[in-house]
Design goal:
This protein is 62% helix and 0% strand. It is an all-alpha fold.
């Protein structure tokens, strides 16, 4: 049985095309290997979370509404800085963040509020990654799922009380 070739091409054209593609792939692999060798490892950062937060906040406070900036400051001062403020940014591990989540849950905070705090932490750590080239301790942390609230319908007596 004869092999079908693309219209206007013969076996030699196809073989040359494959060889050309293989050469191109080899060149790309060499470039990627060279680029990988030039990657520098993350740096050790002696900055405390409180210092990084202040630097991040200085840059962000003029780009968001005043109420948003105040919200960030409140969450940081009340939740993030008391726990992580005196730790160096690069010393925080995923286990520290999971322990933080557990402690906030045991305080009775809602999953939504805890997620808001985690989003703020993510933003601060992303700033530290860009600025100080650290590994992001927030990478791989699973966000909390929102609980489905059960909707309870009012009976006629409860409805009458509301009217």
């Amino acid at each position: 049985m004869r092999e079908e070739l693309p219209l206007g091409r013969n076996r030699i054209d196809c073989e040359n095309s494959c060889l050309s593609l293989e050469k191109h792939m080899m060149k790309l692999r060499k470039k990627m290997d060279a680029a990988r060798q030039n990657l520098q490892p993350p740096c050790a950062c002696e900055k405390m979370v409180s210092q990084v937060f202040e630097e991040w906040y200085q840059g962000i406070q003029y780009r968001v509404k005043e109420s948003t900036a105040a919200n960030y400051m409140l969450k940081a001062k009340k939740h993030i800085l008391p726990v992580f403020g005196e730790k160096s940014v690069d010393s925080i591990q995923a286990s520290d963040i999971y322990n933080f989540i557990s402690s906030r849950q045991s305080m009775g905070l809602s999953n939504r509020y805890i997620t808001d705090i985690l989003v703020l932490m993510k933003s601060i750590f992303k700033f530290a990654v860009r600025t100080y080239r650290i590994l992001n301790p927030k990478d791989g942390i699973m966000m909390l799922k929102r609980k489905n609230l059960e909707i309870k319908l009012l009976d006629d007596a409860q409805l009458q009380k509301l009217e």
